[in-house]
Amino acid sequence: MTTEPEGDRAESADVRAARAAIEAHLRRTEPAREGESRAAGSSAPPERPDGDARDGGRRIDDATAERIAREAWDAVLAATPPPPDPGTDPAPARSAREPAEVTELRRRAIAVTRGLRELGHHLDETLLPGPDMAAG
């Protein structure tokens, strides 16, 4: 079961992206329950009494939401090539475009961050997309 409800068209694409990022984060970080192996293909949600059926029984706090948003932005930074060095490149290309991979990662990070906010999580303002971060 994923955190994304099937067929719910009332949710925005940003919320769906956030739910997918939450699910991926939980799959990577949740320890196996006692006596149970959490194989990558396991679809059994963890049992939590405070869980919400829409979230597959999973809830995250604001700190976890911030880690998820930070992971999305860290992926953008990791894929972004370093700026040209003026000392070794006397005439850097002014019209150099951002690689498509970076543009897609940036679009995803913006969607995840906005979706987490729509889900009611409070994020550090440094993680919020601004006008200069808009995906191309």
Q: Explain this structure to me?
A:
This protein has one domain (13-133). Helix 1 (13-29) crosses helix 3. The two termini are 33 Å apart. The protein has 136 residues and is mainly alpha-helical. 40% of the residues lie in helices and 0% in strands. The protein is built from 3 helices and no strands.
Defining traits:
single chain, 136 residues, mainly alpha, 3 helices, 40% helix, disordered C terminus
Could you give a short account of the major beta sheet? Answer: none
Name the overall outline. Answer: elongated
Oligomer: single chain
Strand coverage percent: under 5%
Order of helices and strands: HHH
How many β-strand stretches?
0
| Count of the separate structural domains | 1
The N- to C-terminal Cα distance equals 33 Å
How big is the Rg?
A: 18 Å
Mean pLDDT: 75
Number of helices: 3
Taking pLDDT < 50 over at least 5 consecutive residues as the criterion, the unreliable ranges are: 34-57, 132-136
Q: Helicity level, as a percent range?
A: 25-40%
Strand-pairing-aware structural class: mainly alpha
Helix/strand layout:
Layout (H helix, E strand, L loop, with lengths): L12 H17 L32 H18 L20 H19 L18
Give a short overview.
By secondary structure, this protein is mostly helical. The protein has helices spanning 13-29, 62-79, 100-118. The chain has one domain.
